[in-house]
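Tutorial handout. Part one gives the primary structure; part two gives the three-dimensional structure as tokens.
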Amino acid sequence: MPPAQIPNLDLAHIFEVTEGSAGDQPYFDWTDRDGVPIPLAAFVSVHLTLYDAETGQDDAGAKIRDRVAVITNGVLVAPGVTYTPSAVNAAGATVGRLAFTTTAADTAVRHPNLGSELHAVLAEVVHTGGTFADQLALRVLNLRYLG
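Part two.
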């Protein structure tokens, strides 16, 4: 499935990473319907699934990695995942920001004949007001093609 056909994959906001790199911090910015940042205490869990966007999330072989963040008594328990309830986005608005730290496994190239490839991160969120899902894109630059 081509990346443009993946539902909710925001290709206007792509985080660029290098093959095999670790330590990058892609992030999601969230607010409620009124534009108010969602407080950490409202979250129950966040399930992050990283998959190969070129193959598509419905293909069993596309899944790269999972992370599950559990929030207990307002404390986020997940290695490499942080939540900032009052971050400021590029437009100057206050948002809740969930960031995760990439590992080399997250940025491994799955299509060696491409100069770059898209990985997608699906966030499935359970909170006190219900559930929602969001996605972001990682463009992984293939080292074989970098000058």
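Part three, for discussion. The mean pLDDT is 85. DSSP finds no helices and nine strands in the chain.
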